[in-house]
Amino acid sequence: MAPAREMTDQDLLRAYVHSQDVDSLGVFLGRYEGPLMRFVANFLRDESAAQDIVQETFLRVAKKPSKLLDVSSCHNWLLKIARNLSIDHLRRLARNRKHSRALEYEAARSAAAAVPSIDRLEKSERMARVRSEIDRLRPRLRMVMLLKVQEGKSYREIAEITGLTTTNVGYLIHQAMKTLKTRLEDLREASS
Question: With respect to CATH, is domain 115-184 assigned 1.10.3470.10?
């Protein structure tokens, strides 16, 4: 038998389902922990909640791994589960806080760090501004933008993950880009 790291996702899942090979499950989950954490943390803007969501996603795999044996893309299935759990989390926050989520942004670079060049500083400020504007998008627009830009998913894959139609995904991405273009107009004018 091939070492667990060289096995396909389906082989790892079968090993866990048929012989309770916990190491195989660990290798499978290890493949997806980073990408799921990145997606959920950026979507929720809350690393602690993202860890809980990813853990719950993995618990669902551990409880019913056979569900994944027939899917064409384990990554897309895991993203869909993490997305659904994330939306449930946001709904709970909305009920508990009456839509008063606090936005958190990264702290300024340490004063002890070397002073960056003007160009690097301006580029860093522009990137922070773009990221800030993406964070300000409505949750649905932010979600499709993260799946498209950060995760590199196609419209079809985003539709599969979100349960939307491909046409709707295209429309939402168009709306997000249009909103970002308007909000970032001053950046475009400054760079011309």
Answer: no
For the chain, 192 residues long, the average pLDDT of each consecutive 10-residue run is 70 84 85 92 92 93 82 89 93 67 36 52 76 87 88 91 92 90 77 60
3 state SS of 48: helix
Q: Is 170 exposed, middle or buried (0-12, 13-18, 19+ CB in 10 A)?
A: middle
Quick one: which of 52, 73, 65, 83 has its CA closest to 26?
Answer: 65
CA distance 17 to 74: 15
- Tell me which CATH code domain 1-102 carries: 1.10.1740.10
Q: pLDDT at position 105, please?
A: 30
Q: What is the pLDDT of residue 4?
A: 58
For residues 74 and 44, give the distance between their C-alpha atoms in angstroms, rounded to a whole number: 22
Closest to 74 measured CA to CA, from 123, 119, 14: 14
The domain limits of the chain are 1-102, 115-184
Return the number of other C-beta atoms located less than 10 Å from residue 167's C-beta: 10
Same fold, 1-102 and 115-184: no
